[in-house]
Amino acid sequence: MKCRDRKRDDVIALKIIKNIEKYRDAAKLEIKVLQKIAKKDPTNKNLCIQLLGSFNYHGHICLLFPKLGKSVFDFMKSNMYQPYQFSQVRHIAYQLLLSVRFLHSIKLTHTDLKPENMLFVDSSYDSFWSDKARQEMRVLRKSDMRLIDFGSATFDHEHHSTVVSTRHYRAPEVVLELGWSQPCDIWSCGAIIFELYTGNTLFQTHDNREHLAMMEHTLGPIPSRMIKKSRKSYFRNGQLDWDEKSFGGQYVKDNCKPLKKHRSSESYRHVLLFDLLKNLLRYETDERFTATEALNHPFFDCIRSRNN
């Protein structure tokens, strides 16, 4: 809710958690995580949402946050799912990875990274008519953002539930129930950055087997080590048990193509972006980039040079 904080004389966002025991317990965990984040990053240089305070109102737990703009997803939705400008894709990706690097450094995995959980500080925009799209387009003025929603965030020492992440951003090790840790966030980053660039969800599905088929069409075969280790019944004779001629098989064939074929330009900056994506979307967790490695990728050279 949009509220006025009379003590601060400022407009804030109030997150209200219903007076239901399991929701209350989750809210208490989120407060604990947000307090740890604030303690480790008091100046908010790592761009995670700041908890301004919390209180209990008749059993409803209320969390106070700065009022921000639209989410990365909602802005894209209101813009007819048009991709962001290339410079903004790079800036949003850099900020996301910066936040993730910080979380991982304090032994915390977000576990629910997605465009809905990334809010612009200010989502004001300019409009222009596009003859190509035959519609009015919106161009975001500033792409500064904050990472939000730490309700599912998990410290390394805490219990790791079997399934985490929203479907479209879920890493293969989670789908295959091989156990997960911080690299599952990195996979989500790759899927998010792809979406910023194309305007489309990388894996648009609600079924595990179909999800794996989409991964193979986009990224190549799932490694045999992962197949052997998984107890899930998605494979036969060391390969994904998937009928290419079925209705689902045709859907995957029509909607998925190798990652690099999504590149809209052969210019060097686009090539660099897809090299970054390839390394964020590696099947094997020990081969996947860390957030630090991603931030040091040449794709972000221009941002790092500005910051130095």
Protein model, in words:
- The protein is an alpha+beta fold and 308 residues long.
- It is built from eleven helices and twelve strands.
- The strands form five sheets. Strands 1-2-4-3 form a four-stranded antiparallel beta sheet, covered by helices on one side. A two-stranded antiparallel sheet has the order 5-10.
- Helix 3 runs antiparallel to helix 5 (183-198).
- The longest helix has 20 residues, at 21-40.
- It is globular and about 65 Å long.
- The mean pLDDT is 96.
Brief overview:
The protein is of the alpha+beta class. It is built from eleven helices and twelve strands. The strands form five sheets. The protein has a four-stranded antiparallel β-sheet with strand order 1-2-4-3, with helices on one face.
Ends apart, CA distance between termini: 38 Å
Instruction: For the largest sheet, list the strands in their spatial order.
Output: 1-2-4-3
Strand content: 15-25%
Query: Based on helices, strands and strand pairing, what is the structural class?
Result: alpha+beta
| Most strands sheet | 4 strands, antiparallel
Write the layout of secondary structure elements.
Elements: E1 2-5, E2 10-17, H1 21-40, E3 53-57, E4 60-66, H2 72-78, H3 86-105, E5 108-109, E6 118-120, E7 125-130, E8 135-140, E9 145-147, E10 154-155, H4 172-175, H5 183-198, H6 208-219, H7 224-229, E11 235-236, E12 239-240, H8 247-255, H9 268-280, H10 291-295, H11 301-307
Antiparallel strand pairs: 1-2, 2-4, 3-4, 5-10, 6-9, 7-8, 11-12
